[in-house]
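note to self — DONT lose this again. spent like an hour looking for the file last time. sequence + predicted structure for the chain T wanted, 927 res
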Amino acid sequence: MAQRLKYVIGKDYRPLTVLEAKGGNAFTPDYDKSNWVQARQYEDSLRQVFVEITNEDGSAYDLTGANVLFEGILPDNEHKILDNSHVVFYEDPTTGKFRFDMPAQAFSVAGQYKQAFFRVMKNYRNVATLEFKFEVLADMVVTGLVPRDYISPLDDLFNTIKETETKNVAELKKIVDDKINEITNLMSALNTANASTLAELGTARNSLLDIEKKIQEDGLFTQYQADQYKQSFDDKVNIINKKIDDGLIDMDAKIEQSNKDNANLVENKLTQIDTKVHAYPNADAIKEAYPNGSLGIFVAVDTGHQWYYLRDTWVDGGAYQASSSTTDGVKAQTSYLFPDFANGSNISISQKLSVYTFNFTGNRYIGIYNDDSQRYVKTIYIQVDKTLKLTESSALVYNATTNSVTVQPWTSDKFPNNLIILALNYYGTLYGQWAAFFDRTPEAIKSTAGLFEAFPLVGNNIEIMRADDGQHLNVKFTVKNTAKNFSILNTNSIGNLTDTGIADGTIYTLDNFDYLIFNFDSNAIEKYSYDHYTKYILNKSKHKILIYNYYGYAYGDWAKYQLQKQQIDNIQNTVSLLSNGIPPKYYFDNNYLQNKIKEINDINSFINGVSFFFITDPHFYINAGNSDKLINYIQGKTGIELTLHGGDMIRAYGSIDDIKTDVASWNSWKEHASKIVLAVSGNHDLTIKKSDHEAIGYTLSDGYKYNAITRHEETLPNIVLAGAGKNYWYADNKQQKTRFIGLDVFEMRNGNAKMGWEDNYGAKTEQLKWLVNTALKVEDDWKIVIMQHCPIDPNMEGVIPQVNPVWNILSAYQNKNKVTITNIVDDTTSFDVDFTQSKGKIILDLSGHQHVDNETYNNGILSINTLCDAYYNDDPNYTKNRTIGAINEQAFDVVSIDYDNEIIYCVRIGAGASEIRKYNFNGQELK
């Protein structure tokens, strides 16, 4: 369950101080009636609080770069909560919205919190505390957590220390075990010596017995003989005593040395636990300084995040908070005014910082001196002609009113809106927008490729929304943009302020392939329409592209302002529906989804066989994002738990970061869809073209691919993976005697993470032999379902020859034939296969890739190719336009196989056939 809180920055709901509350006085803040949270004792992170913060003028409060903590005093007035680990910015931080997933420890005591609030931190300063009423209802049925203080940063640190301690204990145990073995060996040696001594004593005893016997027999035994026997006996006893003494001395010395070594080891380990804060320019600098890790607190200055070494890798610990913070921080800085515009400033860092300026054609600029007729931008015109010294606790600020840069003493008071903090010297460490450039020289920066692209035109409060049809973009300026709101690349290659002013509420509507540009000649924002990116570049190369609309998605500098909101208009009880993952309302209109579920349940109520979801080609960036909700909802109404996924999670064009973004979407999809998801790799997994007109791109490593596509299957029941790093597998439904086989027909890709687009089809020899000797080895009466990304039947349109070896193996198996496998993509040799004794039967082969609905029946195998889940309009037989906000935005099947009647049922959800498709095992489509 979730609850919402709303705050206006500037209002205060705290009549009492924390000290007054702790002293036992009645603590009854005058809360806003809507700002309360209620939960049941012992609940965990499913209790979510949605928070929205606005300024007093009603505009959203910008949370960019902010860290949010939940702080509270439990109802027992004894234990406290301090948690900075569970905040989620579920929308762009500029909207002022976040979600907080309350930890279980927050609900350990029933009653009303003595105090509860969210603390918002920015730039190591306390921006706001957002108070609310927090009530925990008692749970009389079960007992749960024992109350305790919960401080998430300390818990993380303690866990790190605990792991270090565990490692140290293991090392100490090894040392002790070694010493025990050493002592055991010594005792063994002493026992050996003792046995030898006993033997000598026995000899001496026998000699005495001889003497006694002679005496008893009145034999001749002189005094001299008696003295010799006595001396011999004494000598042997002395030798034995010396051996024992020497052994004990040696053992004592070794034990004493071992104790010293152990004490030194423990002392050394303890001294390595460093509590000092070490500041570095960025995370890469920390990793470079300590490649094998180190104990202590390491802070990356550019982000303000704390890093620690855990399990042989550096981990981002989130924003670092000092033990005490000023209550009034730097507020109301003008967002987006000059983002990182000082690229190239030469700032030497020590106890004093220096910012150098350069002269170019009579003007003064902070940044690169343009001395070789090249364009080095991200600079801004200012009126200074000197070197500015930043002494300790001083700030370098830009005055937007006077267009000048000055040095001012640093205080915790709020700076005026017209002053933008560029750099702060805090005990010899540089903070602020220029921190990333503190160690760079102009020469070094000019030689860095790709660093000097023109910085974006940025305006305050720009909203970019997709229209309801999914094809248009609306660009809205909610606040008037003036000369102080824009920074642009001027025609002389120097960033400057424009005179452009845009009225409040101005909206530009961009059709598909439309551009919004800044025209340097007219000094205005204009709209253009070109059907191809290259054509635009050739015709309008002097313009600055702000946005390019490509099928309802924004590309360009302003793309980051596109609001990724779900289509939730007219949905009743929106918060409850979204929190439970319910599909959008239009799927329930006219009982569409209810009727589909009834069809599925009617089929499965009488069949003996298997039922599963099949979905392919989501291309998550061009996807409405509702198929996981639909599958999850249908699963709950039908009991179908298995999903087969045909691959192609990644978009077609973009960057490495775009690949990683789509992988994150895929991981989220898996989590919210069905209980069991079995996937194969597509030709876009994990590789991407830079653009539609460039045959270059980016490919991530095979290890990254395995981690994204297959690793989650390692712990699933009844699945057998081909091996670590292999993206092919089989899974058994033993009750229904059914084997599902997933193949990777794109494993010829180069395994190195190189900068290149990879699109090489084919299965290697190792996989083909695994298919023959392992995957297809089943008992009598077993049924087999095959899945791979692209079609393999030569009779299906668009099949490529590299997959022929896979098809030849399956055809020979289905018909109990012998076959020689040739033309293997990684091998010039061939191998023979004999399936004359095969026992199973292939019921169905599933694929995607073509983005169309198609089916073939060849050599006894029914092959079904399915429409893509992405809302592409690629199927010529499906003429209705696919748009976001309609039921045809998604496309997947619920497949049910009736073994008794030998019928395959396909119920389509979304675009494609509206009726149930039925096929018999001979490939005939039934009406």
